[in-house]
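Hi F.,

I've been meaning to write this up properly since the lab meeting, where we talked about keeping a consistent format for the predictions we share between groups. The idea is simple: the sequence comes first, exactly as it goes in, then the structure tokens exactly as they come out, then a line or two of notes. No screenshots and no reformatting. I'm using this chain as the first example so we have something concrete to point to.
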Amino acid sequence: MKTWKNSINQLSIMILLTIITQVFMLLKNSIVASKFGVSTDLDAFNFANSVSSFVYSFIGAGISTILMPSLADKDKKTSINIFITIIYTIAFLALVIMLVFRESVVMVLSGSDESYFIKVCSNVFIATLIAGFLTSFVGLVNGVLEYKGQFIRLRSVTLFTSVLLCIVLLIEKNMSIYYYATVVLITTLVNLIMNLFFLIKSGYKYNIDFNIMDKDFRVMVRLFIPIVLSQGVYQISLITDTMIASRLGVGQVSILSYSTTIIGMVNVLVLSNITAFLYPKLIRESKENKSQESLSNYILYINTLMFFFVVLFFTIGKEGISLLYERGNFTIENTRVVYTCALLYILSLPTNAIRDLIYKYFYINNDTLSPFNNSLVISVLNIAVSIILSVYLGLYGVILGTTIASFMSIALITIRFKKKFGFDFDKSKFVKENMKIVVVTGLSVLTILIIKNKLAISNIYLFIIVYGFLVIGIFVLLLIVSKSKVLKLYVKKTKK
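Output, unedited:
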């Protein structure tokens, strides 16, 4: 059995590979921003991509979530084959229907009557829909390989395809939005092919099976449907933000996309790595009746990391956006708006991270309905608040509504958690330690504001380096001064 120290080393390599990947993704975003700026073409691509994600992203995530606990039971191999066969048959039919009626879908969802936007979006929709379908397969394959512990191999594939994407975009000097969409589709296909190769090499075997009368298959479907609906209502809230933005004027969808991309990078860099790494551990620890204590420790880890990124982005986020995007058709005003939007989004990072981890705990205990009910209530609230606030605050109101909903989400799922499982750990100590992180965050922000007021740095590169390292030092120092448990847990585990 691996020691915790070996696990930390593996996680560190995963994060390092993801950091390198994100560097290339930042390069890709910089190329796109320079070429398209905030334009109708990019609005069309981002809208089509958002709808495609809405249709397919939750399928891959839902399947991998259900699959992992089932993979531990060798008797469910046939049921898993049936489950995959049925779900992806339905997914393929959805793909065909969406491709046939793509223009109508764009017109209804976007609310646009601009012929150029509808034409471009409908054409790009072909590539983004197929890419979304393939990406859902990637999610399925990743779920199996993550259960087998092949985290580093998966991150290596993602890094390779990210490098390939940047190279192909750089080759074309007169890039059109259609070229961009095609390249995204091709690199997604390459990603899937490489992952399938490693899946076959791992010894996993799949057979097409349509026996819907299988008992275990029906159990899996009953668990899967609430997860799909839960992911679906969350995606509805995201697509609603895009639909509202598309009605606020040219460029608003692009600005929203730039902002969500920045937050998405943090999620991919840290949250996705950690949750993918911890989920199999929680599954195993649940059988040893110590999962709640582990869950409380994992929440503290994630809370600390997410609040650190809040402080880091607050400190150097604007300069980072300027450095990455501010060239060509991307203006200073675009930088200011994207930074403000991203800052509003990033405030919800800690609550979203904790909520997702709690959702995993429900899934492990065969309860997929509670997370769905929670997501349904929050998504309705999110949509309502975003629509209301957009009337008064425009795009800022859309994002603020999402952030407010995230705070409500963590509150409601905590209440559900208490009712179903109770608290089998030291509650007062848990609250105290997490409040320390909030206080450390507040003091870090205050300290940085004071230092910025006294020490002005005009060179953007020097600003990012100096204040980046400075805020890291301040945050860690305050953790040490506050005697945070997260440091003690790390030292304790690495000595094992």
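Notes:
The radius of gyration is 22 Å.
DSSP finds 17 helices and no strands in the chain.

If this format works for you, I'll send the rest the same way.

G.
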